[in-house]
Request: fold
Amino acid sequence: MKSIVPDISQMPLPIDQWTQPFWDAAARHELVIPRCAACKAWHWPPAPFCPKCRSQEQEWLPAGPARLYSFSIVHRPGPTPEEPSQLIVPGLVEFPEAGGMRFVAAIVESEVDDITIGAALSVSWTPKDETNVPVFSLA
Reply:
């Protein structure tokens, strides 16, 4: 059974002055992560200053390849009592080339029995408002 793309239509996106570069890049189907221009530390979530050195100089760079660090399987009842449950898989996605930075995202359209810790992931995009939300599937 494959994991589904969760319905994000009612989910508000956390767009503010600090996350705007992330969402602008997502609108172009680019996945970028903030890195301190002073000390080169990657950080998530985006913030007004580097949590390591407190610099306010940051650059947005490609996240690089993604791997699955952890995940859970959520069973959601089917649309009708006769239909099987649907599987939503929230995962903790890690970016080794971005200093091991991690964030939560949906693992979609993947055979649930094949999802394993450390699996290589590929990004795809779910449209939302004026941008896109990154979701991942098994590479």
Notes: Residues 20-27 form the longest helix (8 residues).
